[in-house]
Amino acid sequence: MTGTDPAPRALRPCRLGRVPYHDCWRAMQRFTDARTAATDDALWLAEHPPVFTQGQAGRAEHLLQPGEIPVVQTDRGGQVTYHGPGQRIAYVLVDLRRLKLGVRRFVEALEGAVIDVLADFGVAAEARADAPGVYVAGAKIASVGLRVRHGCTYHGIALNLDLDLSPFRRINPCGLTGIEMTRLVDLVPPAEVARVDMDARLAAAVAGRLGLRLRAAEADCAGRALQAP
């Protein structure tokens, strides 16, 4: 960076904790609809109670046996996936026009951020051109789904840490038949995963891949994000 280069724009992280999927989804829509050209980009870090989410193009045949787990028809792209405790989700709310990024490059940045986090644990991961997400030895460890409205994104990427994988057997994850799912605690000692602040690790990786300056989290950001009209 030279003396005349502008400082990187800010990415504001917010730890939402465990929140219902529907509440988080509606809050992302409100944030996106209310933002202006001056609004800082945001990164919401969350996990959800058990839920299946079906993307806009979702096909009913990929939802096999949901049972007691609720199904939410949502507005992201892609097919059905599962969210639950022990899965960390990074919801990335950015202005693609301001970043001068197309959707494909943005998806690659999110996948790259997760690959970077996994590399810190000594896990070699990769993305696939034919099926968005992150894979380890052919098994899927992270799923990505997005919505772009007025050039701005919401939804994001979900990384399996130590969640119960059995609900994935009730669906064809992301419309893929026969796909094996995996999680970080199956690849490295669980104690090593537990000692890491995964929210901070993911935030740094996403900001780095997008070339954004990571701000400190604001007080009560979760309350204001989820309750704003």
Q: What is the CATH first-level class name? A: Alpha Beta
Oligomer: single chain
> Roughly what fraction of the amino acids lie in strands?
25-35%
What string, H for helix and E for strand, traces the elements in order? EHEEEEEHHEEEEHHEH
Low-pLDDT runs of 5+ residues are 1-5
How many structural domains does the protein architecture include? Answer: 1
By secondary-structure content and strand pairing, the structural class works out as: alpha/beta
Overall number of strands: 11
CATH superfamily: Bira Bifunctional Protein, Domain 2
Molecular structure report:
By secondary structure, the chain is of the alpha/beta class. It has one domain: 2-Layer Sandwich (BirA Bifunctional Protein, domain 2), CATH 3.30.930. It has six helices and eleven strands. Strands 7-8-9-10-6-2-1-11 form an eight-stranded mixed β-sheet, sandwiched between helices. Helix 3 (103-120) packs across helix 5 (198-210). The radius of gyration is 17 Å and the shape is globular. The N and C termini lie far apart (39 Å). Mean pLDDT is 92; it is low at 1-5.
